[in-house]
Amino acid sequence: MSFIIKCIDCGHNAPYYPTSTTCPKCNSQWREAEYDYEAIGKTLLVKLAARPFNLWRYRELLPVRNPNINLSLGEGGTPLIRAVNLGMMLGCPNIYIKDERQGPTASFKDRQASVTIAALKEAGITEMVAASTGNVAISYSAYASRAGVKLWAFVTSLVPAMKMREIALYGSQVIKITGSYDQCKQVASEFAHQRHLYQDLGARTITSIEAMKTIAYEIAEQLTAIQGADEEVPWRTPDWYVQSISGGMGPIGVYKGFREMKQMGLVNRIPAFAPIQAEGCAPMVDSWKKGLEKAEPVTSPKTRIETLATGTPGRSYELLREYVNNTNGAFESVSDEDAFRAMHVLAKMEGISAEPAAAVAFAGLFKLIRAGIIKPSDTVVVNCTGHTMPAEPGILGDNWSRDVKLMTSQQTPQEGLLSALSQVAPERFPKIVIVEDTAEARRLIRRILQSQGSFTILEASNGREGLELIQRELPDLVILDLMMPEMDGFTVIESLRAKTETATIPVIVATAKELTTDEKSRLSGQIQSLMQKGDFLNDEFLEEVKALIK
Ligand SMILES: *Cc1c(COP(=O)(O)O)cnc(C)c1O
Ligand SMILES: [Zn+2]
What we know:
The chain is of the alpha/beta class. The protein has helices at 37-49, 84-90, 109-123, 135-147, 161-169, 181-195, 206-227, 249-263, 283-289, 315-326, 336-350, 356-370, 413-421, 439-452, 463-473, 489-498, 517-523, 539-549, and strands at 3-7, 13-14, 31-35, 80-82, 95-99, 127-132, 150-156, 173-177, 198-199, 240-244, 272-278, 332-334, 380-384, 431-435, 456-460, 477-480, 507-511, 529-532. It has 18 helices and 18 strands.
């Protein structure tokens, strides 16, 4: 594969060698790989048709001349998953999750490590240094072991012990630095310098940016398979790319991917970029919101999400700012609390367990949709950058399991089992009736309730059925739609209030309808709460349910 390293400051071209990290002409550290896009563009589609779906299918566009398949752990080629439930909750049906948890060490750093280690191996380099908040070092450590490369992993003392142990398990030397991530990088850099070792330079590492760009290629190919191509090009671009960031290497690479595809005529546009940071360490977001051209550093990050604790983004901010502005994107920040909440929503609604750093992107997505910046008709791809490790012990709190104790001495096993199971028997749970004519909406409300507590849930698909069910079951709570066949919600409420047995059952109305003043006065005093559909992500809904039920 032929490629050249071009300086983004002076345009000077130089050959690639991993340890030569500055432009020979102007000394800039900001350079990128450039390929013969015209030639590659002519044959790429035909070649791709015959290759497996993994990172190395784009090998003409990667800075490794002869990819060594023996080093591979199956990196790249992660699924693009439609977030159907989130889409319904948010009123934004085309949300897709690029599931980077499915990489060999469960984060998107596997792309970076696999390409970088392949390039080092090819250049005959056998020792390297990386500073990390956990995931980069885990990933490098795994690939280094296959390649016989020695890794010195500098991590901050905030990195969960589980993650440190995983780094060590693959045989790398872990060096714990008590200090900020930025300080940890400085120490690592000094160490590498003294020993003349290859060092990972974050977003300035050619191989890392090249590796990350494969996410863009995969998204374009996968979205085309789902939605069809954009007009007059072979592939499709989403409207948004959302990712949680620390140093910003991911989106810088993904942007380069889309830029290259556009240059080769494979796509006709670049998505809007939405880099999301944790509020307690959001130098890029804060600087962008203030309209600054250079980032104001954050010297003491205040977030528990240590994976995202880069306080001094430097030049990466300037690049990302340009990309965000050019694409009409937006920077956003979210609190740790929002991120943890998003993590629960994602797990409970989509079956995806993401680490807090990845959940930051989802919390950002919720915020941008609520602010109207991401529109209901937009197609959004969110990068789910990493998997929850048991490293996050505080996540569930207490009471996350129900204990069933078997066999006390006097009981026969059978009796013991039955009486034990009565401790989890659903009859003892509060009863909720959902009256709603759309099956999808019923399923969604049921799921939201089930994810937050133990309820016995009964459903009816029209007003008449609903009224009968309520009169028969006398539930603790009713969640009621207004516009339904057979009997509308207004009539159901009036019938309930007219009879003593049902007069005091609390009712939450959930409706997509804009109510007229007349309709509002018909409901007033008759119901406990009015929810707009699409509002269910709001904590209010569950608080309301919990308050009404006790
Ligand atoms: C590294 C990492 C990030 C931040 O990525 P950058 O693009 O380098 O800023 C986000 N989430 C997870 C899980 C990570 O490991
Ligand atoms: Zn230069």
